[in-house]
Amino acid sequence: MLSALLRIGWKKLWTLFFVSVISFAVIHLAPGQPSQIDPLNPRFTPEQLERYRKAFDLDLPYHVQYVRFYRKLFTGELRAFKDSQPVLPKIVERFWNSFPLFLVGTVLIWCYAFPLGIASAIRRNSLFDKVTTVIVFALISVPGFYLAYLLIIFVVQTFHVDVIGLRTFGREGVAAPLRLMDRTWHLVLPSVLGATAGIAVLSRYVRSQMLEVINSDYVRTARAKGLGEDTVLYKHALRNALLPFVTMLGLLVPALIGGSVIIETIFAWPGIGRLGYEAVLSRDYPIVISLNFIAAVLTLLGTLLSDVLYMVADPRIRLEAE
Amino acid sequence: MRVKQILILAPTLVSLFLLQSYFWVPTFEEQVKGDPGRLTRYIQTSIGDASILNPTLAADSASSDINSLVFEGLIDRNRDLAFRGRLAESWEIFEEAYMVVDDTQRLPDGNPVTADRLLRHLEKARAAGDPALRLVQKIELLPGQSKIEQIEVAIPRQESGKPKKRMVEVTVHLPPRLKFTLSEVDQDFFVKLNSLLRGYGNRIDPSRFIEGAEPVITRERAAALVPPTEHNPIVLFRLRKGVLFQDGHEFDSGDVKFTYQAIMAPENLSPRVPDFEPVKAVEPLGRYTVKIIYKRLFEPGFGSWGMGILPEHLLNRERLKAEAIRLGRDPKTYSIRDSAFNRAPIGTGPFRFAEWKTDQFIRLRRFRDYWEGSPNLREYLYRVIPDLLTAELTFYAGTSDAYGAQPHQVERLKHDPRFQNFSRLGLGYTYIGYNMRRPIFQDVRVRKALGMAINVQEIIDYVLYRQAERTTGPYPKQTEFYNPTVRPLPYDPEGALRLLAEAGWTRNAEGWLEKDGKPLAFTLLTNLGNEVRKAVMVVAQNAWRRLGIKVETLIMEWAVFINERVDKGDFDALILGWSMGLDADLYQIFHSSQMGHFQLNFVGYSNPEADALMIRIRQEYNRARQVEMARRLHQIVAQDQPYTFLFVGKGLTLLDRKLVRMIRDPDGTPQYLPIVADKLGRINFHFNQWVKTSEPVLAAY
């Protein structure tokens, strides 16, 4: 088992290397220049542009740039073009801003998707199933930003409270519990919006998975044994239906650093999605490549985690080594 | 069944916990009314965060917003856009000019030139009241000297086209020179002097003074090392006494010199280098006077002294070194760009920095010892809200006082009695540029006809909701340089067809215009993401097609558009805009020397008269003469139509009506005055006098 893990780890390292090359290449091959090197600033001379390129290492051959870049990244010396601030603390700060959104969003998705999916599966073709199907597809199709505006306008006009940002702006010197509740309130709208599409999609998966299991032989056997309907559904059927979702836990890991550009922009949330988006627009290479690289590391870790989880959950699955 | 219970309980509990938090949050009314501090706190929202709070390093508008409150320059512009002293109380502009003594020549009286003879000859002419020397106050003789210099030369190679560069050592024998001190800057001084001395200046050969790598030094390089004649405009600033930085340290001439050096130091990578490159030296003359010497005539350089002044005592070598050591960084490579100062700045402006939460807000507090008196508002908050609709919502709810409203948002809130609005005309114009390297656009009649086919008024009315004005030339309409007598091209498709016919383009059997069997066809480009340009594109294409021109259109991503098409001159026609400064300099955009790759005259405009005017305009320090030449230039450019000049955007700024200016009478009673906008529509000219009252105190105006 250990040797198998090592072998997988080795493979993933190679993947990581290729990802690092590709993420470096993609941004450098993309048209455009860092916004500091703005060719349309009328008073810039070629010598000055050259000086910027040199300071940003952009005058070197690509392979040298690549080596220097990752060396700086690993030693923590990497600095953003925009403000010469170290990249890693910046990313960490944004990560902690985005984390509550991610956490509450994920909790909402998993809390709602399962009951909804299971209920629709059990009452297949009932009115409830049809109504949820329509609502779910509506939620999948409606653009997130549109829904966000509708919700914000509705809440602001009806309840007259602030919903933008991390906390009520300009409210200072209040007690800790009040602050906590204030922050919780500000999480509600963005995380609900972030979760809608997730709930919609995941509940569909749950429904189909559940349907498949309900119609299988062992469920019929369980019923034939004379077990109660609840025991059949929640003990025998649900457990097996849940199996594929275990792997999904692993895939959540890379989402940690994804953030949501649209939700964070609309809600003035200083999160990691906005950091990445603004960096791409101004071609701030250090931030873009670092984010890409970290996302790649997390994705690989996530897949590893889901492999392991699956193995633990389903004894039939074994790593190839054994 | 426990699983079933969990499935129902979990979402219910989570939802309840989230929703109950609503009861702990204050409503807008409670925030605005229940917080007396809100009246002395001004909240501005912005779509982007600042990047670097150092005026010598920042290039984005958000950073400038903050820097303009924390820092202050030597000068700024008053409400009529004329220069006004800030850290400088007053200034003088004059000139020091130099001319080499060339002893191979003869004076007009036949005697060979010597330094003394030349000086005596000129002194005599001055005493006789010769008009060439009218402005001269003093003539001095400077001795010559020799020095050794390393210069880089390019040696052309026969086979490969690329010249090789290498350093050579040359000896420069700087001959004796005459220094003239002039009471005002005169770009024609040497022209007049030359006619007095019968072409003396033109005959000086500078290569004579360079010894060494003779064959590789061109005459231009020699002239750069030993200029035969040289204009050095001088600005003498008298500084305000007793001005304090926000840490209590007094501002003086050393800070001015330091700021200049900080900009020019290569390791700081200041984007402001081009503005200060024409400066030769900054010399403090005592604590409160500073002399700025320019390398050459460059009038637009004066406005650059609006640049915020940095505190030398916080950013000098020793301080940076100590900071680098504290952070464990290499003191040799640690520059001002790395310093923590850029995230907690200290200047001489009316507001002092207090707090910065990246991408959330920046907090400033008033500086009570500001030299012009403390601002009325206690706090300035700059809140980052990247989305315009949510920014409008916070404004509407009263939790912000100003935001960058879009035209359609202004339409919504303009008539709301709670708000006041101010109209402003932009400094940028939108145009269609024609690539004059392409044969079809070389004929001015074609360019003119294309402009006449477009109904610009229709674009303004229907695309821009009337939030724009027509423009006829390259200058901002608020400046004196804009020539009001130039008439816009009429909308006249029939006339356009006649002009095209004159140019040889006639309709063929299918209705398309052609000349010598070739159709009039081209592609119109613009960049992605600008809806107004896109709409203009459709209008233009439609108008031109109706004349019988085959127009293709293409919208490209900005970076590709600029790098692959504009910079390489690979386009037929394009829609773009320029955002102009307040000076009269158009050299980079329209001078024929600026047509190369990555230069800004990408349409390839060339007109000898315009070229000469552009150079004279940037060298002219007399306002009236400069205005006259600029208006003539406007006229020429409008005649040549390298662009179809379309429109200048207009906008409205919205503010809470409870914001007013307050000044105190000598006996201390407050007096309320309305906030007024300047010529550019900027409202914050009197920002230090602003207060927010709990109820509107002034009737609608």
Task: Indicate the multimeric state.
Answer: heterodimer
Number of strands of chain A: 0
C-alpha geometry of chain B: globular
Structural class label of chain A = mainly alpha
Quick take:
The complex is a heterodimer of chains A (322) and B (701). By secondary structure, chain A is an all-alpha fold.
Task: Describe the model.
The complex is a heterodimer of chains A (322) and B (701). By secondary structure, chain A is mostly helical. Chain A has helices at 2-29, 46-55, 62-75, 87-122, 127-141, 144-159, 176-214, 217-224, 229-258, 261-266, 272-281, 285-313. Chain A has 2 domains: 1-80 and 284-322, no CATH class; 87-282, Orthogonal Bundle (MetI-like fold), CATH 1.10.3720. In chain A, 75% of the residues lie in helices and 0% in strands. Chain B is α+β, with helices and mostly antiparallel strands and 701 residues long. In chain B, the strands form 7 sheets. Chain B has a 6-stranded antiparallel β-sheet with strand order 5-8-4-10-12-11, covered by helices on one side. In chain B, strand 2 (75-77) and strand 3 form a beta hairpin. The interface between A and B is large, with 71 and 68 residues.
Detail the topology: elements first, then pairings.
The complex is a heterodimer of chains A (322) and B (701).
Chain A: H1 2-29, H2 46-55, H3 62-75, H4 87-122, H5 127-141, H6 144-159, H7 176-214, H8 217-224, H9 229-258, H10 261-266, H11 272-281, H12 285-313
Helix pairs in contact in A: 1-12, 4-5, 4-7, 4-9, 5-7, 6-7, 7-9, 8-9, 9-12, 11-12
Chain B: H1 2-20, H2 28-33, E1 41-46, H3 61-70, E2 75-77, E3 83-85, E4 88-100, H4 115-127, E5 136-142, E6 145-155, E7 164-174, E8 177-182, H5 189-196, H6 200-203, E9 210-211, H7 219-225, E10 229-239, H8 253-264, H9 273-276, E11 279-284, E12 289-294, H10 312-315, H11 317-327, E13 351-357, E14 361-366, E15 379-384, H12 388-396, H13 407-413, E16 419-434, H14 444-452, H15 456-463, E17 468-470, H16 493-502, E18 506-507, E19 513-515, E20 518-519, E21 521-527, H17 531-547, E22 550-556, H18 558-566, E23 573-579, H19 587-590, H20 608-619, H21 623-640, E24 643-656, E25 659-664, E26 670-673, E27 690-692
Parallel strand pairs in B: 1-15, 21-22, 21-23
Antiparallel strand pairs in B: 2-3, 4-8, 4-10, 5-8, 6-7, 7-9, 10-12, 11-12, 13-14, 14-15, 16-23, 16-24, 17-24, 18-19, 19-20, 25-26, 25-27
Helix pairs in contact in B: 14-16, 20-21
